[in-house]
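User: Could you go from structure to sequence for me? I need the amino acid at each position, not a summary. Structure tokens:
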């Protein structure tokens, strides 16, 4: 989390700040990184893909956070192995790689931010691997919905069965079957493009 007020003011003053609509792709698979995003407001989901082009949710970039893969890719000139998409209306600082490199030398707060970010992302990715291998799909769906409810402060989540399937790496048919079971168990209520947690 970027908490240093002076550093934040400098980043806003020296870099481009944009407000983007929901579902805007800010980084796509196999494209080169042009910027490092820092989210000021809203959320960005970061997705990975397998060799069959199936996508899976890796983590969310929350306000005050950035994407480790973007930092690595932008600094090293590598092609992207992730896709980053805005979840809602999102305000983002886009930092040029050369400015990020200068900050590493000039700002201890920036270096500390990057190290903390690495630790956070590593723990999140470790959790994804653990969930995929050891948790059943029912639990993964419920946890995804609860995370979204926390993010948006509402028990009603606007999401489709296909979006859930894409985020946890399964098929829409599997998601639909599990949601029906969870509805019978009074865990949630489904509607057109919406799910309400009970």
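Assistant: Here is the amino acid at each position, in order:
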């Amino acid at each position: 989390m970027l908490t240093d007020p002076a550093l934040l003011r400098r980043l806003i003053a020296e870099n481009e700040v944009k407000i983007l609509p929901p579902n805007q792709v800010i980084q796509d698979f196999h494209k080169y990184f042009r910027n490092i995003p820092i989210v000021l407001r809203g959320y960005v989901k970061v997705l990975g893909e397998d060799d069959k082009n199936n996508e899976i949710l890796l983590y969310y970039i929350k306000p005050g956070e950035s994407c480790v893969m973007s930092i690595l890719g932008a600094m090293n000139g590598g092609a992207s192995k992730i896709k980053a998409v805005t979840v809602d209306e999102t305000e983002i600082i886009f930092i040029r790689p050369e400015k990020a490199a200068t900050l590493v030398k000039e700002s201890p707060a920036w270096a500390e931010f990057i190290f903390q970010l690495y630790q956070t992302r590593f723990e999140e990715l470790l959790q994804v691997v653990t969930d995929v291998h050891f948790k059943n799909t029912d639990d993964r769906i419920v946890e995804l919905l609860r995370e979204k409810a926390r993010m948006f402060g509402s028990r009603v989540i606007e999401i489709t069965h296909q979006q859930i399937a894409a985020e946890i790496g399964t098929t829409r048919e599997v998601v639909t079957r599990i949601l029906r079971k969870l509805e019978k168990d009074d865990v949630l209520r489904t509607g057109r493009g919406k799910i309400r947690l009970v």
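One structural detail worth keeping in mind: The longest strand covers residues 55-61.
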